[in-house]
Amino acid sequence: MHSRTLLRALALAALVASPAWAQTKRAAAAPAAPAAAPADAAAIPTAPAGPTTVPPGGPIQRDELTPEQKTALKEVDRMRGEKARIDAEVALAEAKRTEELAPLNAEVSRLSAERALRLAKASAEAAALEDERAKLERQAGLEAARSSARLTERSNKIRELEAESKQLQLEAGNTIARLSNEIQRFQKEDEARKVASKAKPKYLKDPLVDGVLYISDRRISFNGAVTEQLADYVCTRISFYNNQSSEFPIFIVVDNSPGGSVAAGYQIQKAMAASKAPVHVVVKGFAASMTAVICTLAERSYCYPNTIILHHQASNTLRGNMTVLKEQIDFTTKWFDRLATPVAKKMGISLEEFVKQMYANDSTGDWQAFGDKAKELKWVDNVVERIEETSVLDLLPVPATPMIALPAVPRPPQTEITGVSAKVDDKGRPYYELPPLANPFDAWWLYDPQGLYRAR
Fold first, then answer.
1. Spatial distance between the Cα atoms of 163 and 118, rounded to a whole number of angstroms
2. Which residues are catalytic?
3. Do residues 283 and 301 touch, judged by C-beta distance below 8 A?
4. Pairing between β-strand 279-288 and β-strand 308-311 as defined by DSSP bridges
5. Burial class, 367, CB count within 10 angstroms (exposed 0-12 / middle 13-18 / buried 19+)
6. Which of 66, 153, 333, 446 could form a disulfide with 258, with the two C-beta atoms 3.0–4.6 Å apart?
7. Domain ranges (residues) in the chain
């Protein structure tokens, strides 16, 4: 019902909005004619130019109208009344709607205000929560950093304590081992003294008597590769025995040595030459390369008939490009010239002839000779049949320094003295690792056909 009324109101509004309707409205609002005026004198307003049922021109008298026009005019009057009624109904309905909507509009306004207020409060609360969240995150990050720092500090402290514990365990083990050795030594002293109770080292200015060499306790053990550590060991003891006495000889006793560092060997050679007490070199088993040079250039040297002395050219573990290789070869050659020239001079030949004879006697250039032949070549001064170690006065074992367990390979001679350590490569083959050459101008000069010695 409401929809139909609304449609009728819209139709009447369109009719009223038309120019013809506006002119008719104005004519209806004009003052009424006097009662005496004839009925046909009433003027009918004319519509503006456009589609209309009333022809243009002046007012048309009612009696002049055709029956159809009169009928249409009556319809118009009826529609005017209907329109006025509808307008009143529409106005009343509008008033009622406005009256009905007023509480709703007020409620909408109230709800909108409440919503805006709630949004503002929610935004304020969200901002406060965001600030609180950021604050908590900063606090959490700071606490995490502090925790990490404390954890790192504790971890470092734990590592320090573990290292200290291991060190204490090692020191305790060393102390226990040392005390055990001392106890064993004390327990065997009486027996050892009985064995050599009346014996004393023999100190002879000329230790070779009737073909027998007597070695006193002025003795320096020289075994394994020649290294800086071994040179320091030998040179220090030469000085020590010189400070004890410069009257009796000092013995450097070589069991087996393949040679080694030319710089270290040169230091030993110069310490021997500078010694006030004579330094005698005794080779029992084998001396090669740098050790053979030390033996040959000693003030006096001794060996057994079957001792082997070996001289050859210097070699090196060369690495680098062609220019670097050439420089290393040139420098190693200079070392060889300086150290081998005195050997050749003692033999009574030139260095060139010395090298030539090396390869004439062996295709590899490794010129080895037994003791008696070495004496003929002037590589050694004396060949003896018997050597007496007069300083061996007890049967006590030398206290061993506790060491970390190594793989099951033969230990190189004088490991603690020379710095050479036993190793096993990734293929399970044992070898001896030489210490690094601290002297940048140094070179290795040793005899190692089996490849047992390897440089770091």
1. 65
2. 289, 312
3. yes
4. parallel
5. buried
6. 446
7. 208-455
